[in-house]
Amino acid sequence: QEKSSRLSAALFGEDCEISHDQLYELLKYAALGKCHNATQPSWCRIHHQSHLAGVVVIVLHEMSQLHFYKFYLQFKHLRKLFRHRFTLAPSTNFLDSLYGAGANLKPQNTAQGLTCVSSERIPKSSDLQCDPIIRKYGEKKRGLTSYTLTLEEQKKNDYPIKGSPGCKGYISTECDQQRTDSSPLFGLDCEMCLTAKGNEVTRVSLVDAQGQCLLNELVKPESTVVNYRTRFSGVTKKMLLPVKTRLPDIQTRIKKMLPHDAVLVGHSLNSDLQALEMIHPSVIDTSLLFARNEGRRFKLKFLAKAVLGKEIQCEEKLGHDPAEDARAALELAQFFIEQGPAKVAELNLEMLLTTEKLAELSQNKAALEPQRYRVQKQLNEPPHVSKPCFLDCLQVTGQKPLLLGRQELDASGLCQSNLSTSNKQILQRALEDVPLSTFSIIQFSLGPEYIASHLLAGLCEKVRSKLTDMLTIYAGPFEESFCLKSVKKEFGRCGPIRSLTVVTETYQPYVCIQYEVLEAAQLAVESLNGAEVAGSCIKVQRPVTAAMLDCDVLIRELELDVENEGMIYVAGLKKSLTETDLQEEFGQLKDLETLFLPKDLQSGKHRNCCFLKFQKSQSAVDALEVINGWTAKGSRLRSRNALASGHLWRWIWQMNHTDGTQGGNIFYEKGERLSQAEQDLRKRVKKLDQHIKKLYRSLQNNTLCIVLFPGVNSMHGSQSGLGLMGIKDDGGRSAC
């Protein structure tokens, strides 16, 4: 059984804040493995990286951690999909810091438009011995039979084989005659669409050894089409409507056209034969013929240009032309057979690909770089050596990164700028293109009208106010001569208190308590409402404001948040207890995985509470029953499900300790209504959440997906970013 990739990370307290270098470290390792000096990230771990199906990064332009929690209820799907979250330091050039700065290699161009390298790069005869083509075939010319795949090679590369379990019902071409070096070659290529069944043929082309097209036919799939893949196949729904030809018709025609000693040629021909549901014993696969190291393969488009001097699969055309691709594969095989391995190796295709990819990337960056930035860069910036961009490395290794977005990406130049493109159009492109790429960066945006500084400032004030209200409880009434020390002691058992004041404007005194963690305030409401404290039977409640009307809903959703799954909060600890003491105290609990003991981020002193993370949710439920009322080193404990165990705990602390704003009792005016801009913003966020859900569900299993709120760092202020990540598993949710 194939192994699944898995992600593990302990993101608590200070460890939940991740720098851009650490994020870069993760993306580089996920994309490249151990190649190009990529190493396992220091702050998290990807298990079985080689089994990753791909990496998808979703960037929410100009959004911060503030947006996530202001619109927490609207991000319904996002918070349910990803278990691992981290705080991200804001950056003025976020995408630059994400990609890294690329290498700047300037190759020469030939008259034919091909990129070439300087003479010192041309391989010497001694170097040819290390070429994978020479190692595989030797230097001497051979006949075509030397280049047909053996049965073992066909099995290894997923070719349909007669009698194999997966090929039940497949049709044989019945070309069983012995092959010779004069056997005829035929080029074959198919275009496929995605249906409920999987990949099905929509167009088939067959060319003979002279390049004459023998077959170029549209085929109607048997199952319902899910995605026509028009950008690649060139096939549309309208084109297939009048088509009557079905797969059995095509199978019959191909059988009749092929002589008994025919050799089929194609690029990754196994996919075409699998889609045709046909078995043919003798094939030449140009993706394997032009051998590379480490199992990598050249793309047909590159080989056609580098070897034949032909441009195919041009971007201005709608989709690929299967007859053109079949002819290109055939001519590549003929070139290889006629010239021999040594001549092919002398082309130095690997170096040619490297220089061409870097040149293409460099041109894209220069073309998309704003003029003002280029001038400023030339005048003001001294030359410097930048770290290599792993996207450059991806392109060098033959992997084509997918970069989709609607905002101009300033100096990075790594993504097409199209200010007229909507999030919906970006989503449609992503659904079509992401499955075809191993590394994708998709950028969504709320639009410039929703990221204005005054709107951001208003959101910040409202979030801070709501957090303050959620951390605050009112208790009372008490007798005139009540003991404040007793009240503080009793409520302190629920968790760390930030401030405690007596309210005297009422007929009888009340106490206003502001806690440092959400769990403490909620525990006080749940356990002390109706209890007798300091000689009085009291009521415990939160402030009643317009913004707090959905507090119970928010608390319930926080409890159900996947980040808090298997996590409980424990209060009433003596401050003298160390982490070692607590490990000893709670070590007997079943499936305990991690213990997190919060501390004041300024003084470094431990708080009188902790969080316990369990491997299984049921073990956390069992632990709650055991701990409530438990006495640890003479201290009676209280516990409940966690609400803000990871990065949110740290963010709340920072929000309440920001210079110049103490939070306090910043309440909404009675009857305050949402502005039209904020109502529209809520709708947009909800729609964006649905886009992410749809894109995530379309991903293959074992895909690492990271959603980034980059944060804001401008002259108007700074807001931390937020990252959510996970590897999609069979259940459609991120795997830990």
TrEMBL record:
Q: Key word Phosphoprotein present in the record?
A: no
Which keywords appear in this protein's UniProt record, sorted alphabetically? Answer: Exonuclease, Hydrolase, Nuclease, RNA-binding
Q: Where is the RRM domain?
A: 471-545, 566-644
Record has Nuclease as a keyword = yes
- List the Pfam families hit by this protein, alphabetically: RRM_1
Enumerate the PROSITE patterns for this protein.
Answer: RRM (PS50102)
Which Gene3D superfamilies would you find in this protein's record? 3.30.70.330, Ribonuclease H-like superfamily/Ribonuclease H
Q: Name a GO molecular-function annotation.
A: exonuclease activity
Q: Name one GO cellular component term.
A: nucleus
InterPro entries, alphabetized: Nucleotide-bd_a/b_plait_sf, RBD_domain_sf, REX1-like_exo, REXO1/3/4-like, Ribonucl_H, RNaseH-like_sf, RNaseH_sf, RRM_dom
What is this protein's record name?
Answer: RNA exonuclease NEF-sp
Species of the source: Pterocles gutturalis
